[in-house]
Design brief:
- By secondary structure, this protein is α/β, with parallel strands linked by helices.
- The protein is 32% helix and 25% strand.
- It contains 13 helices and 21 strands.
- Strand 5 and strand 6 form a beta hairpin.
- Helix 1 runs parallel beside helix 8, helix 11 crosses helix 12 and helix 12 packs across helix 13.
Length: 454
């Protein structure tokens, strides 16, 4: 049996740890079943943002008349759009694997890994042993137990990113960030999209004002069924029919394609983690402490399988700390502040507490909004609805949360993140007192900060 100082399971953010540990002189094994690079590279943030760029261009063409221009979207080369993303990420994944195989350390074991004992992993029938183990095997789409779903063809985000023919119609079950991003992509390129969302709002984990606005706007643009449950799925000729229950009424809708976007499930079950004694929470995510340690000595976990945050940037952060902690330089992960973004239309970004979370935690806070259209650049963009919202501690003036919905939200948020990182109780003053270019879009952030009542 081959033995290693460290076995890393998962070649997403886990690859950062494997490479770093090898550079420090540890003998490392890298276990990966799929293409190298993890979810983000192969079936997540990178390919999705590439195809969404096409939707953003299409949206601007559709809005051309607002700027005195006559333009129309005459043709969509859908295969080019998705192939552009697929070919890019596939080449990157192959390049990563080639580079790993070219070296002697880490050693790549290509195949599904599963635990057979506490520190023993089996890959393709071969068992390897590690003094230390890092589990970074990610998560996969969660498939809800809807009657009939297992008898019809459906897509998850993985397949939706690689379609080569634009469907005429699509039903999306789910109303979170994946539904928001892929629904926008398909709808703007010409698919008739219907969203079935169990909650009263789309993206319900966002700040309530943000979620309310995108729900309102989307109901005007697309077919969005809220407070709705998909209770049955069946074939209907060439289409797929979904029976939807809203309150006491039941309706049946059909479409050419069905996309299931109802969250993720950690891969702890496929790894047979229970054979290590590592504890999972009720949803199957591996429980870790602030050092990314599990309850079993010398076994760590990070990324989606640990479920603290489900972002690649948080996994990369955890990987940096895990590498140091594995090397016995123990330090707790500092997540503050942890931002996120949804690349849909309108774009959404947030950091810190939502207002509903501030209320649940009984924070003594003030909330303040400032709209894009109250700035010169917002007027130039013809942005009628977007805003920046701050949630600030009344006494200390600490920014508890910031939420943005509108153009370039993901970019604008970083100014707030840098200010928060510079100092919890001085972040608001930094935003207020820093000179901003006029008339740049970032003025909306400064004015929102100035608008917070003192």
């Amino acid at each position: 049996m081959k033995t290693f100082d460290l076995i890393v399971i998962g070649a997403g953010a886990g690859l950062n740890v494997a490479s770093g540990a090898a550079e420090q002189g540890l003998k490392v094994a890298m276990v990966e079943e799929g293409p190298m690079g993890g979810t983000c590279l192969n079936r997540g943030c990178i390919p999705s943002k590439m195809i969404i760029q096409s939707a953003e261009v299409a949206e601007m063409i559709h809005r051309a008349s607002e700027f005195g221009l006559t333009a129309s979207l005459k043709k969509v080369n859908f295969k080019f759009t998705t192939d552009r993303a697929s070919n890019t990420v596939d080449a990157d994944a192959r390049s990563i694997e080639k580079n790993v195989r070219a070296g002697k350390n880490p050693v790549l074991f290509k195949g599904r890994g599963k635990f057979v004992d506490k520190y023993i992993v089996e890959v393709n029938g071969e068992q390897i042993k590690g003094t230390k183990i890092l589990i970074a095997a990610g998560a996969r789409p969660f498939i809800p137990p809807i009657p009939g779903l297992d008898k019809v063809p459906y897509m998850t985000s993985t397949e939706a990113l690689r379609q080569t023919v634009l469907p005429k119609s699509m039903i999306i079950i789910g109303g979170g960030y994946i539904a928001a991003e892929l629904g926008f992509f398909y709808a703007e390129l010409g698919t008739r999209v219907t969203i079935i969302q169990r909650n009263a709002l789309l993206v319900p984990r966002e700040d309530k004002d943000v979620a309310a606005l995108i729900t309102e706007l989307w109901k005007k643009r697309y077919t969005v069924l809220t407070n709705a449950d998909a209770v049955k799925v069946e074939k209907q000729g060439k289409n797929i029919a979904v029976t939807v229950k809203q309150g006491n009424s039941t309706t049946k809708i059909s479409a050419e394609k069905l996309l299931v976007a109802t969250g993720v499930k950690p891969n702890s079950d496929t790894l047979q983690v229970e054979k290590t004694g590592v504890k999972n929470n009720k949803n199957g995510f591996i429980q870790v402490n602030k050092f990314m340690e599990t309850n079993v000595k010398n076994i760590w976990a990070l990324g989606d399988i640990a479920g603290i945050y489900l972002f690649r940037h948080s996994a990369n952060l955890e990987a940096d700390y895990a590498l140091n902690n594995i090397a016995s330089k123990k330090k707790a992960v500092d997540y503050y502040p942890m931002p996120h973004a949804i690349f849909t239309s309108p774009q959404i970004a947030g950091v810190g507490l939502t207002e509903q979370e501030a209320q649940e935690q009984k924070k003594n806070y003030v909330a303040s909004k400032y709209y894009y259209h109250q700035t010169a650049k917002g007027i130039a963009l013809a942005e009628k609805h977007g805003f920046v919202k701050f949630i600030v501690d009344k006494k200390t003036k600490e920014i508890l949360g910031c939420h943005i919905i509108g153009p370039e939200a993901s970019v604008l948020l970083h100014e707030v993140c840098v200010a928060m990182k510079a100092g919890k109780n001085k972040a608001l003053d930094l935003l207020r007192n820093t000179v901003h270019v006029h008339p740049a879009l970032s003025e909306v952030v400064q004015r929102a900060a100035l608008n917070v009542p003192m």
